[in-house]
Fold this sequence. Notes:
- The protein is mostly helical and 124 residues long.
- It is 58% helix and 0% strand.
- The chain is elongated.
Amino acid sequence: MLAIRNKPGMASVKDMLLLQGGPPPGGFAPVRHARRIPSKGPSDVAIFLTVFGDFSWGMYEVGKGNKICRAIKEEKYDARRAILPMLQAEEDERLVEEWKRYLEEELRQSFPCTKPRKAEEKKQ
């Protein structure tokens, strides 16, 4: 039988006539709800030790790589330190030549009647 809500004269929902199904006599059969998971695969300790070992080996390899990179950098710096005196000597020579040209220009401006020296005289 179907009941219609909001029927005039009803005071409550409980006044409605409804047909509902209920449990069977004697109740339903019990439901098995226990977790019965089979214990397959490695144990927790074995997984932890494997991951820890892999991580440790990776860190060891990173350390070896860092030592190699450090050695390469040090070799590069040693090479630069070895040629630094030669580079400094070249720069000093260039600076002395530039300073000589500057002084000659100053001298020429101070005494306009003097003649500039020839290229052969400059080399001697």
